[in-house]
Amino acid sequence: MEDNKIVELYFDRDENAIKETKNKYENYIFSIAYSILHDQQDCEETMNDTYLAAWNAIPPHHPLNLATFIGKICRRLSLNKWRSSSAQKRGGGQVELSLDELEGCIGDDHSFRESLEEKYLIETINEFLSGLKESERKVFVCRYYYFDSIEDISKRFGFTLSKTKMMLKRTRDKLKDYLIKEGVMS
Amino acid sequence: MKTDKLIDAIGQIDDEYIEEAHKETKKRFEFRLNWTTFGKIAAAACVLLLVINIFPVFFHSFAMSGGAKDSASPAEYGGSYYYNNSGGGYAEESVQAAPAMEEAEMVYDEEAKAEGNTSALRENKKLILTSYMTMETQDMDELLDKINAMVSASGGYIQRSSIYNQNTNSRSYDACIRIPAANYTSFLESLKGEGNALYYSEETRDVTDSYTDIQARLSSLKAQEAKVLEFYDKAQDLQDLITVESRLSDIRYQIESYEAQIKNYDLLISYSTLNLTINETKVYTPTSPSFFERLGSAFTRGFSQFIDGIEDFILDIVYNIWTILFLAVLGFIGYRLYRRFRNKRK
């Protein structure tokens, strides 16, 4: 079923909307959840939460792209779940590695302006991404949005591991410079 | 935590970037230059080049030296020889009488023979001359015609001949030629003028002692025969006749045996034997090359053999085209089945 028809079902408050979403995007959101949580049961819980969150969000939201809409929900919920459980079982996951990488990028010398609105930060990152080369952008998004492992990224794009790592390092450095330049970080 | 803020913000980036990153791009054919693979390919290519180029060169020079058997032989016998290969082209004369050749007491070298001293010595001595020669030519047919004419003119004959790779342009001719000893030197000189002589060796067997020995035994046996015949005439009774008859047949048998040996010797002495090998080539090996000539020779010969190798390679491919196509189709079907199986499992 096409996305806009599924969205119509949501607007009609038809419970088939969730069924259709599940049929179409189960694999997609599972891959997002799993790369964050690495646990079948947690993933299933998060996925159910995702469908519920989508049910509650549409309406009033009218997503043009249902896949990325529920993908974002799933990512956010998975991260939340990961944060609440990571106190007990830290280590190993790609999220932690990605966070470490970004932490290294930002460093202790800089801090976000507290008063900064999230919306402005998102816009700045979007601008930054639009200025990147396509391959750099794809690799960056794979790593820090989807939390794909470096190995998977290398395979997907046909790069060597070291090339992927180097590309990510340069993009992070550019991001840092950009954030400082745009006044997001001081 | 500031990184959490960043990672959450990244979670809200534009849909187009999210889609773009995980969009299933049709995998184009990618040739990834992997240095290990490249090394392997390069090594394989080198080995192939070696096989195509170096091995034929090695084999060729090996064949020109008369093969393993012949190239070893000059050292074992007393005699003179010269040797010429594509690498060095050196002339060597050996006057060593090796223990293996007890009868090789008389050694002639090229100059002495050329001056005709040999014929004088041969008159007194019973000498058997056997020689080995390797030549190369650019036109095998022409040279063979000339050799046939020269052999007939000198009163000799070809005892045995064979030709290898009849239908290619790298033929090899092998023959055993018998030439009257008196005409041998002139025959050899004219033969050398016809092609590029690479290797020559000769050995002389002095059979004077055994020849005179056999002659002495023969005359003694003949004397015995005459005496026994006298007894035969005088014999009175049957017993005597039988005894004399038996003795006579023994003597005659020995006489015939020695006479056959003498005849064989006479034939060997009067006709010298030349074992000739001729290789057909496109480029002559220079006889006394300088480094640059050898370099040039190596280059042209190498190129010629490289072209031959390429031609052979193409012929091999054409020859095996049906097998290759069959294997390719099998491989393609196998790959598709594997893909289908893998996708189903997914």
Describe how the helices and strands are arranged:
The complex is a heterodimer of chains A (186) and B (346).
Chain A: H1 3-11, H2 16-37, H3 40-57, H4 66-86, H5 94-106, H6 118-130, H7 134-144, H8 150-157, H9 161-181
Helix pairs in contact in A: 1-2, 2-3, 2-4, 3-4, 5-9, 7-9, 8-9
Chain B: H1 2-10, H2 15-22, H3 35-64, H4 67-76, E1 80-83, H5 110-114, H6 117-124, E2 127-137, H7 140-153, E3 157-164, E4 172-180, H8 184-192, E5 196-206, H9 208-234, H10 238-270, E6 271-280, H11 291-319, H12 321-345
Helix pairs in contact in B: 3-11, 9-10
Topology, number of strands of chain B: 6
Regarding quaternary structure, what we see is: heterodimer
Give the strand order of the largest sheet of chain B, numbering strands 1, 2, ... along the chain: 1-5-2-6-4-3
- Summed up, the domain count of chain A is 2
**Rg over C-alpha atoms of chain A, rounded to the nearest angstrom:** 18 Å
Q: Please work out how many helical segments of chain B DSSP would assign.
A: 12
The H-and-E topology of chain B, N to C, reads as HHHHEHHEHEEHEHHEHH
Structural class of chain B: alpha+beta
Instruction: Catalogue the unreliable spans of chain B.
Output: 26-31, 61-116
Largest contact between chains: A-B, 35 and 22 residues
Q: Tell me the distance between the termini of chain A.
A: 48 Å
Largest beta-sheet details of chain B: 6 strands, mixed
Can you tell me the CATH architecture of the largest domain in chain A? Answer: Up-down Bundle
Helix coverage percent of residues of chain B?
Answer: 55-70%
Secondary-structure element order of chain A, as H and E?
HHHHHHHHH
Task: Look at the structure and give the mean pLDDT of chain B.
Answer: 74
